[in-house]
């Protein structure tokens, strides 16, 4: 990938990802409402909510919490920029994990018992999904012999053929990353599980808007990883991403929240059986 093309992709990601992520969130709300026999809000409602939050004042319990939120969204954007710029996939994953750490620190800085519990659950979620995420990058490296996103995308056959277990394992932990039931233990985007919203309980106004926009960026990045499994055919890759997200919405609306022990245990079992099993097959074949 040429330097100019890489920078173009980075700029397009920074500009377009929040619009795409917001539309995805709007479609998510509408489909969820229809699954619950409701009409649902307009597809552009997430943008209306963001504009409304931007016009409200932020009540900061700790002066440093705004800095942590800014670091959170900056590192989410950096992770996506590395990915769509054709950089190192492993580095992009580490940047995304660092972003999550800043969100946890921001929650702890509020000194709220509800935010504390949400932050602890967020750390448990990181412990749950991170092994499978790392195994996904390792599996892609074993097939393509590169961590470079462009090299992985240009591989001559779909990775899904060589990494079916990795794909299913990644699909499983996407439910955690998208913050959907039954694994939305630290917070829920739809707030249909609780009145107190876990890790983001003490955030308001612009701070809360930045957190939501960061999740839009993150969702686009995660769906980009899904597309890598069939990158040799862009149209099929896009269809795969749409089907995967629709499946996540269906799961979200048909399963109630699990306890943190079940989230942690099930994610590790999936990583061990599907992730390690697929990698062992690649190593031994």
How would you describe the overall organization of this protein?
This protein is mostly helical and 285 residues long. The chain is 72% helix and 0% strand. It has 11 helices and no strands. The relative contact order is 0.16.
Write the layout of secondary structure elements.
Layout: H1 3-35, H2 45-54, H3 65-84, H4 89-108, H5 113-144, H6 149-153, H7 159-162, H8 164-177, H9 205-228, H10 234-252, H11 260-284
Helix pairs in contact: 1-3, 1-9, 1-10, 2-9, 3-4, 3-9, 4-5, 5-8, 5-11, 8-11, 9-10
Quick gist of this model?
The chain is mostly helical and 285 residues long. The chain has 11 helices and no strands.
Domains, number = 1
Please give the alpha-carbon distance between the first and last residues: 31 Å
Radius of gyration: 19 Å
Strand elements, count: 0
Query: Beta fraction of the residues?
Result: under 5%
Helix proportion of residues, in percent? over 70%
Q: Give the topology string: H per helix, E per strand.
A: HHHHHHHHHHH
The residue-averaged pLDDT reads 90
Structural class by sheet pairing and helices: mainly alpha
In terms of quaternary structure, the protein is single chain
Low-confidence stretches: none
| Shape call | globular
Please, how many helices? 11
Instruction: Summarize the main sheet.
Output: none
């Amino acid at each position: 990938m040429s330097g100019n093309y890489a920078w173009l992709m980075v700029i397009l990601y920074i500009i377009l990802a929040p619009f795409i992520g917001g539309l995805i969130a709007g479609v998510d709300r509408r489909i969820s409402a229809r699954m619950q026999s409701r009409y649902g809000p307009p597809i552009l409602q997430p943008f209306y909510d963001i504009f409304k939050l931007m016009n409200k004042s932020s009540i900061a319990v700790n002066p440093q919490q705004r800095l942590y939120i800014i670091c959170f969204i900056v590192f989410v954007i950096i992770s996506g920029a590395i990915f769509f710029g054709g950089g190192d996939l492993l580095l992009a994953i580490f940047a995304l994990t660092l972003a999550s750490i800043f969100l946890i620190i921001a929650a702890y800085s509020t000194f709220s018992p509800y935010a504390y519990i949400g932050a602890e659950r967020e750390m448990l979620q990181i412990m749950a999904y991170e092994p499978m995420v790392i195994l996904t990058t390792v599996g892609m490296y074993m097939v393509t012999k590169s961590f470079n996103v462009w090299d992985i995308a240009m591989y001559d056959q779909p990775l899904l053929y060589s990494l079916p277990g990795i794909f299913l394992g990644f699909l499983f932990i996407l439910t955690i990353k998208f913050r959907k039931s039954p694994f939305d233990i630290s917070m829920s985007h739809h707030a249909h599980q609780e009145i107190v919203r876990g890790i983001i309980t003490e955030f308001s106004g612009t701070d809360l808007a930045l957190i939501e926009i960061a999740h839009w960026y993150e969702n686009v990045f995660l769906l980009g990883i899904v597309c890598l499994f069939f990158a040799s055919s862009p149209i099929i890759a896009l269809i795969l991403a749409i089907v995967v997200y629709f499946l996540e919405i269906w799961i979200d609306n048909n399963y109630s929240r699990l306890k943190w022990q079940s989230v942690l245990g099930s994610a590790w079992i999936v990583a061990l059986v599907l992730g390690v099993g697929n990698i062992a097959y690649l190593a031994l074949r």
